[in-house]
Structure to design on (65 residues):
């Protein structure tokens, strides 16, 4: 499972936006968002760059955790 530090997430809408952005690339991706910690965990066949680009395209700053 890949883990990313994402800043700017603050609510359920943010969780949905990030989750949907990743699942648009791979429908079966498992996405776990920890709002309090600012962490996104992804289990998918995607590489880290693809995931980070999807999150950035939603307007959030992201880095490997």
């Amino acid at each position: 499972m890949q883990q990313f530090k994402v800043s700017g997430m603050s609510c359920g809408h943010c969780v949905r936006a990030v989750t949907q952005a990743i699942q648009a690339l791979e429908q079966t991706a498992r996405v776990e968002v920890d709002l309090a910690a600012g962490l996104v965990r992804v289990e998918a066949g995607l590489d880290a760059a693809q995931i980070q680009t999807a999150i950035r395209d939603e307007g959030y700053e992201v880095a490997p955790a």
